[in-house]
């Protein structure tokens, strides 16, 4: 998990769930009986209700018995039409780095891959994505001493973009200076023609124009692991030079207790969802109208299922 990582403690069974790796704890978030997801714009979950009533089905690839989806193959189980499961188009690419010892059945990272297949990739550490983007185009979402708040992210991205723009401007001026010296020493060359609008431009205008052409962000990296295993990944030198961001104002509804950890440490799919919502508002500067709500399609259903089981067991306060 990322920004809040799922704790691999022993959990209680829910009807029609796997007795080993798909066990779900019937501990809810502090909201108690309140439905934290009631205002989301979600696709119909009738297919999930049907699957829950019918029990397990086989994975079309590995043939394992699964509920809803195969968390090992990132595929829907047999009998589920892909048209019945929503697909979310994201404004940037998501990379999830999973610890090799992380239990697949306890991770919510697979939700992101199933619901935004074209924009999400999952890597098993030490494998990592090749970051071809510039530093100001990629961030790592993880809480830590070097992490900045999301609210400060626009300022830091702007600073990195400015540094890049100034570097490009400086390099360009050196090239032009070198070409001018060659022109003075060599034969006369024809000058390139420029429109009147290009004349009289200042360096500040050029830099400003460069800034507007730079995409705010192209890729976001999340870590999927238990807390005891995160250090090896987050301290990897390949992630050290990237900007680290922490979601400090969001609270988790994850049902698996995280002893000694603040409620701002989120499940992987929560972290992805809340990051995108804040990105939409603060960086894209657009009103949010539920564009990414379906990322919580599976998560919200499981949350309600677990709360229902907890209520039946008399454990819901």
TrEMBL record:
UniProt keywords, alphabetically: Nucleus, S-adenosyl-L-methionine, Transferase, tRNA processing
Chief place of localization: nucleus
Reactions catalysed, as given in the entry: a uridine in tRNA + S-adenosyl-L-methionine = a 3-[(3S)-3-amino-3-carboxypropyl]uridine in tRNA + S-methyl-5'-thioadenosine + H(+)
Basic and acidic residues bias (residue ranges): 186-210
Cellular component GO terms held in the UniProt record: nucleus
Protein location: Nucleus
Entry-linked InterPro entries: DTW (IPR005636), tRNA_Mod/Golgi_Maint (IPR051521)
Keyword Nucleus: yes
Disordered: region residues: 179-210
Domain (DTW): residue spans on this chain: 66-311
Pfam families in alphabetical order: DTW (PF03942)
One example GO MF annotation: tRNA-uridine aminocarboxypropyltransferase activity
Enzyme Commission no: 2.5.1.25
One of the protein's GO biological processes: tRNA modification
Protein family according to the UniProt entry: Belongs to the TDD superfamily. DTWD1 family.
Role noted for this protein: Catalyzes the formation of 3-(3-amino-3-carboxypropyl)uridine (acp3U) at position 20 in the D-loop of several cytoplasmic tRNAs (acp3U(20)).
Protein name stated in the entry: tRNA-uridine aminocarboxypropyltransferase 1
Species, as recorded: Chiloscyllium punctatum
């Amino acid at each position: 998990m990322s920004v809040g990582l799922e704790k691999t403690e022993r959990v209680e069974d829910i009807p029609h769930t796997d007795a080993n790796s798909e066990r779900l704890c019937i501990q809810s978030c502090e909201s108690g009986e309140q439905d934290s997801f009631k205002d989301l714009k979600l696709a119909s979950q009738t297919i999930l209700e049907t699957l829950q009533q019918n029990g397990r089905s086989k994975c079309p690839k590995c043939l394992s018995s699964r509920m809803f989806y195969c968390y090992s193959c990132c595929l829907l189980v047999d009998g589920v039409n892909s048209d019945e499961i929503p697909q979310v188009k994201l404004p940037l690419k998501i990379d999830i780095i999973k610890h090799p010892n992380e239990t697949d059945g306890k991770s919510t990272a697979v939700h992101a891959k199933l619901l935004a297949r074209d924009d999400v990739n999952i890597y098993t550490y030490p494998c990592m994505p090749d970051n071809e983007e510039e530093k100001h185009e990629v961030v790592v979402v993880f809480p830590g001493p070097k992490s900045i708040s999301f609210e400060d992210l626009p300022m830091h991205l702007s600073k990195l973009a400015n540094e890049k723009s100034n570097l490009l401007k400086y390099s360009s001026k050196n090239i032009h200076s070198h070409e001018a010296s060659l022109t003075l020493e060599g034969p006369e060359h024809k000058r390139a023609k420029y429109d009147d609008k290009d004349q009289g431009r200042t360096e500040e205008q050029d830099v400003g124009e460069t800034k507007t052409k730079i995409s705010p962000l192209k890729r976001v990296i999340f870590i999927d692991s238990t807390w005891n295993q995160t250090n090896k990944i987050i301290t990897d030198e390949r992630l050290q030079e990237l900007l680290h961001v922490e979601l400090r104002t969001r609270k988790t509804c994850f049902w698996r207790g995280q002893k000694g950890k603040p409620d701002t440490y989120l499940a992987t799919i929560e972290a992805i969802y809340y990051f995108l919502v804040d990105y939409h508002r603060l960086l894209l500067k657009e009103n949010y109208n539920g564009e990414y709500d379906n990322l919580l399609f599976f998560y919200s259903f499981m949350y309600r299922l677990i709360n229902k089981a907890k209520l039946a067991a008399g454990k819901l306060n």
